[in-house]
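Chapter review: from sequence to fold.
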Amino acid sequence: MAIADRRLQRREIITKAVCGKGRKFSTVTHTVMPPHHPSSILGAWIINHQYEAVRSGDGVEVIGSYDINIWYSYNKNSQTDVAKETITYVDLVPLSYVDPKHRTSTEEVSAESTQEPNCVEATIGGGGSSVVLRVEREFAVEMVAETKVYVLVDPNAYDDDGKDHDYGLADDGDFEDLDSDLLEDDL
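The token string follows.
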């Protein structure tokens, strides 16, 4: 029987799927005022990065914070100290793809830091009284929601009259010689 002769039916399946995606790379500048006028920058690190994602308008807001630690010398390079400052930020990541037929009441968003905040440059600024840092960070976001998927169903495709089929599977005895140490746990 040709496919054209069959009476295909359409079904709607409601499922959770990725209904939106986006990515954003940012370069930001922070100015930190240490307690002493720095003579030179010995190192700059970003630690304790935390963030969360919330749906906002046409995108996803990534709300987060991190600590900046700057090791610097002062008093004509005769002493050192570490300046610490906590930075908070909000990055709006636009969704470059959005399924228009998703159910908005079921939206769940998530963010992944594809590039953790990293100090790429630290210089003395403000007439020698501050440290200016250039920080890069990147996020990828996803929105998961319920959506409809349409499938074609051929009511005659699996009409087997309840017959049992032999799919060529081996009997249980064929597996006795397998080395169980070679089997992976996550299969």
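Two observations follow directly from the output. The two ends are 39 Å apart (CA to CA). The chain has a mean pLDDT of 86.
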